[in-house]
Amino acid sequence: MIEINDHRLINLRGKNSSYVLRITETNHLEHIYYGKRLNHVDQSEKAIVEKNLTRALPSLSFDERHPTLDLNNMCLEASFEGKGDFKEPLIRIKGIKTLDFRYSGHRAYPGIRRYKKAHLPMAVAEEFNAETLEILLKESTHDISIILCYTLFKDWDIITRKTIIRNDGDNEIEIDKCASMQLDLHGSSFTLVSLAGAWLREMRKERRLIGQEKITLSSRNMSTGFESNNVFALLYGKGECIISGLLYSSDFSTSFEQSPYSKLHIISGINPECFSYRLAPSEEFESPESILFYSDEGLENGSELFKRGVEKLIMRGPWKERLRPVTLSTRDIFSLDVDENKIEQLSRAAKAMGFEAIVLDDGWFGVRRERNTSLGDWYVNSMKFPSGLKMLAQNIHRDGLLFGLYFDIETVCQISNFYKEKNEWIIGSKDRKNYSSNEGDFILDYTKEEVQEWAIDTLSLIIETTKLDYLRYEKTRLPSEINVDYPEEFAHKYIMGIYNVLNTIARKFPNMIIETSASGGCRFDLGMLNYSALMRVTENTDPISRIKTIEGARLFYPVSSQLITISGSPDKITRKETDIETRFNASVFCIPEYSLDIMNLSLDETLAIKNQIEFYKQYRNVLQTGKVITDDDEKRIIWSISNQDASIIIMLYLIKELIPNDSKERLFVTQANENYKYRIYSRTHIQSEAEELLYPAEIECYEAWGDAIKWAGIALSEKDGGVDLQEDMRKLKDYSSRLYIFRKIDE
Question: From start to end of 158-296, where are the E strands?
């Protein structure tokens, strides 16, 4: 609940956390505390408020009446330039170097405030458990107001933040910066956990101590970006952690400054290097929403609670509560060489193997036979599909499968009818001879309402015609030559246009699965999760190479939202060979889709995949909604996932390198309930004919109590490498794996 003490001390009190600020005698907003829940703040105010009895020279005093008040050495809710506060400011206005915003009033009310920009992603669920606080700040010499908006979801210990700038004057102003959140914390021992990488190796976890140097996480390519994700965690104290992120899918910046006075200053929002915004009289600008979460249970447990909150508050529509289907994609089977006969044969084979959905990927539209043609021509290729999409969809539905389609509706190829007919909708000047290119394509200008309307109408027509179950919404083009009248406004207005399209489609077709992707993890963020049920983690199909990416994504994003691909071997990118069992075992801790030619598999592989699908369906509820724990050392990777009461636990054992004559291994099941007795077995490993001739049977099966396997561990059977191969030995090689299942025995 939101508690306000004599209109000066404010406590946003969640289930286990408190966020405390106060209105000072100078009407600044001072940040007092963020951490474990405080129940009697009003009776402890004098003790917990920082004293300002002196200041260090040559710092600036705020004014003559407050000679010891140094804004630069205060924890504030909003910093501004020009009055002695030299920290990164919350906002900047072009042409104004001194801003003095002071408290002018506040309003607290139940529920969630929806502002004018309805298309911005928001945490909107469980409104009955939410409270909102708006604090109004006014500038003393300029007709500009700021609203700091806090929404408390008390049951989840989540606070969302945003900043609204209002032009109260008669002249246009230009915003150079508008961050969503400022967070000033007392202390100097903070560890930052963030996600960084590149295409095909996205979201690798980085961990570093924050020193006095400035650290910035950012993107500049009109998306969240491969290089840095916009969710992070701070670790400090005895197991305390703060997790924060932006509900935003474009250029962002989050900076961390550790002062010499044991204070950490964090600013997060739109990247100011790529942004400005003109604000007419009486207009408002609303920043993207930022989310804050606190836990005193460490990062592992804290991240699980944070992800549960994300699922409940940010994800929308019926699919956030539904189990995801087992899907077969044509992406790596046919590439662009798709046609009606191939898809219908594939559909029948998919049904026989147990698949539940088939997604027709690239190549079905225009005259698409090469990658530099037809994007923009979103009508079916009648040479490939003479019966049309409607008939194809009906046949797939008749087979009992869901039907999905690929779109890259933000991109246009120069070799297309659309390019000739709607040239004025494409970004940049008419002369595009020297433009930077990705296979001869261009970006549509989604700042234009007519482009948004065209996209909505185009998607709606095909969705309605085919009764589409699954929309694969791709983005493949990075921006270049943003030659428009106001380029610094473009990126934000562009993503607002995309949000409008996705929001409209999601509301119009609520039962359709929407998957979003931008060449893999380039748009993997909480903003997209507001509209999509699935986001593609990476385009890397090597199950071993992408392990670090999956571990990073799992830190802040629900398992049920993470899509990855099980493809053929050798892998198309790394050329490494991996057995079909390990490709599955290393993928089930996300939402796996298959993309391999099931009509031309060996009998062993066909049987293996059928068994994999049966197993996945049997344990899908645990795999998609359970609690995940990861452990990675030099020799092996151990992942485990359990249901709520730990009556079912599934554990991945993946060996990195088979070391001969190595130490015997124990498997410690930390998620086990000590009071349960478990039956333990390894998921059936389908042996090839060659393996059957070479190796004895491999069977591991035990019964044991939870306390034993948690603390004493399971003594695993030996691996290959001894004098001889004996029955029950594990036949392992480099980068091979097993899945272990633990089921409670009801006695």
Answer: 158-167, 173-186, 191-198, 201-209, 215-218, 231-236, 240-247, 252-258, 263-270, 277-279, 284-286, 289-295
Average pLDDT over residues 734-745: 93
DSSP class of 274: G
State the Cα–Cα distance between residues 267 and 269, nearest whole angstrom.
7
Would you give the DSSP letter of residue 167?
E
For 712, which DSSP code? I
* Predicted local distance difference test score (pLDDT) of residue 549: 97
Taking residues 647-652, report their average pLDDT. 97
pLDDT of residue 438: 76
CA 80 to chain centre: 31
pLDDT at 696 over 70: no
Q: Which pLDDT belongs to residue 657?
A: 82
Candidates 2.40.50.140, 3.30.565.10, 3.20.20.70, 3.40.640.10; CATH matching 325-625: 3.20.20.70
Q: Cα(647)–Cα(672) distance, rounded to whole angstroms? A: 8
Confidence at residue 675, expressed as pLDDT on a 0 to 100 scale = 97
- Inter-helix orientation angle 487-508/449-466, to 10°: 30
Asked if residue 680 lies in contact with residue 709, where contact means CB atoms within 8 angstroms, the answer is yes
Q: What share of the chain has pLDDT > 90, as a percent?
A: 80
From CA 94, how far away is CA 411, in angstroms rounded?
Answer: 33
| Domain 631-744 superfamily per CATH | Golgi alpha-mannosidase II (2.60.40.1180)
Q: Are strands 9-13 and 17-23 parallel, antiparallel or unpaired?
A: antiparallel
The region, left, alpha or beta by phi > 0 then psi within -120 to 50, assigned to residue 452 is alpha
pTM listed for this prediction: 0.95
Interior/surface letters 166-189, b for 16+ CB within 10 angstroms, e for the rest: bbeeeeebbbbbbbbbbbbbeebe
